[in-house]
TrEMBL record:
<dbReference type="InterPro" id="IPR036593">
    <property type="entry name" value="CPE0013-like_sf"/>
</dbReference>
<dbReference type="InterPro" id="IPR012460">
    <property type="entry name" value="DUF1667"/>
</dbReference>
<dbReference type="Pfam" id="PF07892">
    <property type="entry name" value="DUF1667"/>
</dbReference>
<protein>
    <recommendedName>
        <fullName>4Fe-4S Mo/W bis-MGD-type domain-containing protein</fullName>
    </recommendedName>
</protein>
Length: 114
């Protein structure tokens, strides 16, 4: 039995997930909590944020994020893709920096006009 705090809404329900019983989730206050508990133990994912270097802008770095969630096991590989990325201003928010992170179909995108 694994205990988790649900993060999909402000309630912060205490979930219990029974791995030996088909990942049975209890303690959730909404259907999203049940889905979160099951997913977190079977195939956890995350949305990532980071920065990349940019030239010709007021600030030396541009904030970026993933356009969706990626498997937790790919976080290090996804972050390593940004090490060599260099942007040149101007850059619009939502511009794709790296396409198809590790074959997931998710992109690194900018989050600020610079």
């Amino acid at each position: 039995m694994t205990e988790l705090t649900c993060i999909v809404c402000p309630k912060g329900c205490r979930l219990n997930v029974d791995e030996e019983n088909g990942f049975l989730v209890t303690g959730y206050g909404c259907p999203r909590g049940k889905e979160y508990g099951h997913k977190e133990l079977t195939a956890p994912t995350r949305t990532l944020t980071s920065i990349v270097r940019i030239e010709g802008a007021i600030h030396p770095c541009c904030p970026v994020k993933t356009s969706g969630e990626i498997p937790k096991k790919l976080i290090i590989q996804a972050m390593n893709l940004l090490k060599e990325v260099r942007l040149t201003a101007p850059v619009d928010a939502g511009a794709v920096v790296v396409q198809d992170i590790c074959g997931t179909g998710v992109d690194w995108i900018t989050t600020k006009n610079m």
